[in-house]
Each structure stands twice: as structure tokens, then as C-alpha cells.
Fold this protein.
Amino acid sequence: MNTERRDFLWLAALGLAGGALAARLDAATAAGADGNFDIRSFGASGNGKSIDSPAINRAIAAAAAAGGGVVRLPAGTYACYSIRLASFVTLLFEPGATLLAATPPGYDAAESNAPWEAYQDFGHNHWHNSLIWGETLHDVALLGPGRIWGRGLSRGEWPEAGLPAADAPGAGDKAIALKRCRNVILRDFSILAGGHFGILATGVDNLAIDGISIDTNRDGMDIDACRNVHISNCSVNSPSDDGICLKSSFTLGEVRATENVTISGCHVTGYQLGTMLDGTFEPLAAATRQVPTGRIKLGTESNGGFKNISISNCTFESCRGFALETVDGGAVEDISVTGVTMRDIRNAPFFLRLGARLRGPPGITPGTMRRIIISDVICDAPANAMPAIISGIPGHFVEDVMISNVYLVQRGGVSAERAAIDPPEAETAYPEPSRFGPLPAQALFMRHARNVEIDHLEIASRTPDARPVCWLKDVDDTAFTRFKPPPNAQGAAFLLQDTRRFRVAASAPLPDTTLDTVHQKLLP
């Protein structure tokens, strides 16, 4: 391949060629001209009825055989089953192009992932049964501004109206699935109804996801056991599941951390399916009483842990708060969450959970959670009466947490009877705030934690609440400075149980207080 052509292919994959790239794409109509492979030259119709995946796969194979190229999907609707990616190949969804997941059967079979299949859900164990998939590839790109519509994809392990379960022969359950790949770019397209996962990346290194809009019926994107990942400028509406979710499962047959990840400038929501992309942003029907999910989460699968993660300048709306979880033995270390604003949040503003579900090979022990910074967070939750939660388990503490400049607006209105509750440990349960049941704190529930510093936490309550503002049990070395409880609080500022080395300062009207060991005490 000559130097000029190779430079062109790299510019196409990176999307950096600007006007020159656009002009060359417009001019290249023959298959393979200037490294461009128009799927219509390989038999694609784009009429939304004929199955076009064989033509697209032929175009990809031709590009790969030529040493790489850009496979172009012009305007049209391309009904497809499984599309198989190749190294050095870019899929370009041009304006007006829609890749439509056809009605099953017809997708590639779900490959075996034995002997690891018992340690994670069905969707995490298979990649080939997807609309678009790639395995052990490198230097791959999917570029917009077209759309992927997963109309024929299953949402998971159960049958749906008109669709089989994901494990049925010929079914497909993911829009995009990548396994053990490197140097991957996903940019500037949209996904509507992406099935079980809009994007599943497992063991993918050097992954850039930028400018993607996902409006889907399960997880927006799952980044599992991946390294060096940048997720930026994405909008994800996922009312029934998580929006942006980092995981570290055992699906690769090894303990592999998800690490060196930045999530920045993203928006996650929990509106009705499709109403983010069409701009109407319709809330979930009140009759369903569903609590939308839609959040950013680390977990639940967490065998390998999460390390060196930065979440910054993101917005949440009509969904749950962010969650950091390790329940399958992994270490959660060096995590920064900063510059986050949240509106209409429906449960815990933030949820830090170290548990002992321990799903994985025999011999797993509880993990660790330490060195966490949460700063510059606004959470407006006028319908929510659930506090933020920091919870380890007996003998395993959440450690080294710094929280600063956080403003929480809550509903309040809970009676004093709930203040007497000592919630279950739920050590082995699925990690979700609701699994603790009613909580005895208005703003912060903290249990089994060590070395937690909280500076400038302010709480406002729409109606008076009789619970303690902060409830602490089995907590060591905790300091509150510039703490502002709600002016209308009816309960104590703090309830302390089995707490050691506690301090509150510069928090008028509360007096500066230092306590060495407390069995049980209300302050003030």
C-alpha cells in the first residue's frame, strides 16, 4: 500500500481529514476507489426490507483484503443480521443512513464461553450474536452521523412481544460487541433501542467513544475489563438500566481491571425510550411507578476492580445517582468524581458499596474501596427521601474518601419512627440502594468506613425530616467541616454508633466537637 493511501485510511479512521476527506468520499463511487468501499457496489439495496448484511460483509472483507479502507453506508435503511468487523476497516454511516437490526432468526450463533459462563449474565458471555461484532481486531472505527436501530434485538434473557429471548437460536441481543480488541474509535452516530447492550466492549484497550447518542431499553454502554478508555460528549437515555456502566467481570477467564478511564462531558437520563433522540423527553408513565435507572455506574460485575477512573463535568437527569460498587472481590482505587450536576434524582445521590456477593471462581474474598474523591456536586432530588450511602461490610471498610463542595436538595418529610431502624447488612445481596430497605438518615448513611473527610456539605429539605441528617455506625477517623444541615431539620445533625475519632468543626450553629470513642450518641 503506498504512503498516500495509507495516510488517507488513517485520516478516515480518525475522522481528521476534514473537507478533503469529505470531497474524496463524495468522489469515490466505485468499490475500492481511493480506499472507499460503497456497500451498494456489493449488492446492498437500502430499502429497509431486503437483508443487506451479506453485501456489507462482502464490502468489509474486500476492504480488509486490500489492507484496509472505508466501508461507506450511504443514505438508506439497511436491514441486517450480524456484521463482522475487520482490522484497518472503518464503517462510515453517512447522513441519512440507518442500520436496522432485522427480525430474528438470522444472527450469528452465540459462541461458547465455557468454563466461565457461570460467573456473569448471558449477555456478557457472548459477542457474536450481535448486530455488529469484532474479536481480536485492531485499528477499527465506526463513524457517524448515521444511526443504528436495534429494532430486532432482544433486551436480555427473557422473551418479549414479537422477539425471542437472547439465547434462542438466531437471536441477537447487542447492537455493538467487541472482544479483545485494541485501537478502536466509535464516534458521532446514534443508537436507538440497542438491545441488551448498545455497546459491549470486553477486554478492549485504547478505546475512544465520542459524540454518540444512545436511546435504549437496557444498558447504554458496558465497558468491561478494558484499559485506556475515553468516553466523552455522549448522551445516553436508558430508563430501564444503566447509562454508562464500567464492569470488570470474569468473562475473559482472568481477573482484569477496568483502568485508566475518563468519562467527561456526558449526559445520562431516564426518560421514555426514544424520547431523547426525538427531542420530546417524555417522563416514564406514572402508572408504571418505575424508578428510572439511567446513571453512571462502576459495577456490578467487579472481579477485576476499577482503577484510575475520572468522571467529570457530567449531568444526570430524571434517573438514579452515580454508583461505585465492588462486590465480587475487586479493588476500587483512585477514583475521582467532580463537576457533576444532577436533577430529578430518584434514589441515593451517590452510592459507595463494598459487598460480598463474590460471584466468580471459588476462593474469592471481599475486595477493597479506597482513595475516592467526590467534589463539586449538585443534586436536586425533590421527589427523593433516600440519603447518599457509603457502606462496607463488617471487617471490610470503605477507606480514604474525600467529599467536598456538595449541595443536596431533598424531599424530606420522613417521620421519627424510621430513625430507629438499623438496616440489614445485605452483604451478599445485589448492590442497589433499595436493598437496604428504609434508611434512618436524611442526607448521609455511612457504615463500616474509615478515614472519611467531608468539607462543605450542605443539605436543603423541601419539608421537615425527623431522621438524623447523618447516620454513622462502625466508622473511624471521620471529620466534618463547614457542614450545613437543613434549617428545617427536626432530627439531630448526627447519630453516632460505635464510632471512633469523630470531629465536626466550623459548622455553625453546631459547636466544634471532637470525640474519641462513642458507643451511641446524638449530636447535638
Observations:
- Residues 53-65 form the longest helix (13 residues).
- Residues 330 and 478 are 25 Å apart (CA to CA).
- Residues 1-29 have pLDDT under 50 and may be disordered.
